[in-house]
Amino acid sequence: MSRYYKIISVVCIFTLASIVIWVKRTESVAQKLVCTDIVSGCGNDLFKLKFLNSPQVMKPIRLQLETVNARQVYVSFAMERMEMGLNRYHLLKQADSDLWFAEVTLPVCVQGRSDWVVELEIKTQLETMRYQIPFKVDAKN
Hints:
Elements: H1 2-26, E1 31-32, E2 42-43, E3 47-51, E4 60-67, E5 72-78, E6 89-90, E7 92-93, E8 99-105, E9 115-123, E10 128-136
Parallel strand pairs: 1-10
Antiparallel strand pairs: 2-3, 3-4, 4-8, 5-6, 5-9, 7-8, 9-10
């Protein structure tokens, strides 16, 4: 009986290690992009993200993403060294196009900071791509 338990233990450890390795391989590190004007749009060869109106804290912002081959798209907002709570948004695909839309709201920063980061996640059939796009909210808003 003891030998049987050793074999089962080895198989379980091997299975768990394989699962951990597979999960780590499928995770992607967020690529940081430079964005000079989020309202005009920012992106790379795979996508273009833009706000359809000027971003203001606690006011609705229409967000548009143009990309191909996406199955699901999510955005959230963060700041360096600051927890912003749950604010993950699922973008909806416009039928018969490569456009995705969402209406989002920037959370309030109690310190009054305006240095935001859009955390974009694009899921395709084969991979999940993550991007971080910094932008600023005009202090007058």
